[in-house]
Amino acid sequence: MRSLMRALIFILLISILGVYCSNSKSTDLASELGIGDPVITSIDPPSGAPPIGTSPGTSITINGRLFSATASNNTITFNGVSGTVLTATSTEITTVVPSGASSGTLFLSKSGSGPIVCDKNNSSSAMNCYGTPFYIDCYKSFNNQYGDEIGVTYPNSKTFAITGQTGTVALRIDLNTEGATNVKLGCDTYLVYSKFSKSCGRTDVGDPNNTATWIYQPTITFPSYYTVQMFVTAGKGNCEISFP
């Protein structure tokens, strides 16, 4: 009786192992053939900038599984703006952040495998498409030229010092999430500034090389929420960023 029980247990274990191996082989084969919904596991780097001036867009690598190894079968959008797939394998895609891209959802969809349905939360309703957050960082194009960004979050003010005869700082300001925001650049001296739009369009106010264009403690109105990035050039002294 004991021998029979041992034999039955042995057969059961062999059966379970066989099913596991079969499923594992099926999964591996599906991955090799690119069958199934694509999955993004990481993006390197996790943020980037579109082209600014002569600086190209940030090159990024998308890692995951079940991509199409045929580059033209993969479509990438950055918050609705199409990117170009440069290279593709079943586990890795390279692309560049395109002009006009803004922070939001990066979608990777795959054609040739049935209907494509994208969902920004990548819920069960998504088919042949995967969505994941991607953040636009305009300052990446400047290689940390002005040192680390100074972070300011509405409604809290922030004070910093310009220590040289003149100096430039990089700011990252989180605006009011519920509406328009007034931002005051309250430096001791006259100043000039540059601000970037959601898609990194640059607006320069004043010329750092022409003091006749410098202005005193301007207040800038932003009509809606985003994380605005700015450069401020001022003379020696203190500056306060506030929200009047």
Structural class: mainly beta
Supply the number of structural domains. Answer: 2
Helix content: 10-25%
Q: What is the CA-CA span between the terminal residues?
A: 87 Å
Counting H and I runs of at least 4 residues, what is the number of helices? Answer: 1
What is the number of beta strands?
A: 16
Question: Can you tag this structure with a few keywords?
Answer:
244 residues, mainly beta, Immunoglobulin-like, Jelly Rolls, 7-stranded mixed beta sheet, 5-stranded mixed beta sheet, 43% strand, elongated
Report on this model:
- By secondary structure, this protein is mainly β.
- It has two domains: 32-141, Immunoglobulin-like (Sandwich), CATH 2.60.40.10; 144-242, Jelly Rolls.
- 13% of the residues lie in helices and 43% in strands.
- It has one helix at 2-33, and strands at residues 39-44, 47-48, 59-65, 74-78, 81-83, 85-88, 92-96, 104-110, 129-136, 150-153, 158-174, 181-187, 191-196, 202-205, 219-222, 227-242.
- Strands 10, 11, 12, 13, 14, 15 and 16 form a seven-stranded mixed β-sheet that branches. The chain has a five-stranded mixed β-sheet with strand order 2-9-8-4-5, with no helix packed on it.
- Strand 4 and strand 5 form a beta hairpin.
- Residues 6-10 and 16-27 have low confidence and may be disordered.
